[in-house]
Amino acid sequence: MEIIYTDGKNKDFIHLCELLDDNLNEIVGGEKQRSQYVQYNTLTHIHDVFLVYDNDYPIACASFKHYDDEIAEVKRVFVRKEYRGKGISKQLLTSLEKKAKDKGYQSLILETGNMLKEANQLYLKLGYEIIDNYGQYKDMKDSVCMKKNLVHC
Question: How many domains in the chain?
Fold first, then answer.
């Protein structure tokens, strides 16, 4: 397995994000159920991306984007089903956190959903804490927002 650092225009990242969307649709009961979130998951402002490859096969991704001068927002974390449970998400997020810290960010924030139990457990296990919903997610009752301070990592 190999982790590479790239940008949001990478074709493998784009494809993995399509698979992520399909997976989310399956979990929540269709794209219509996620329609209010789609606008916040575009790849336009994502410039920091990590991909995991099994030989030349892209199996996982994670990214972050600028939120403000001290905070980056984690976006588009996904591992193909057949590769889950092997610690890949932890490796990806560790790489992502290091890069964000190296770029001068003090903390990371993210939004996930109530129905995404495995994702919630992963983030909590990695030191993220539940916070009040921020920004565009403020009034979305199915959102769960989290934050991790990078200063002590």
Answer: 1
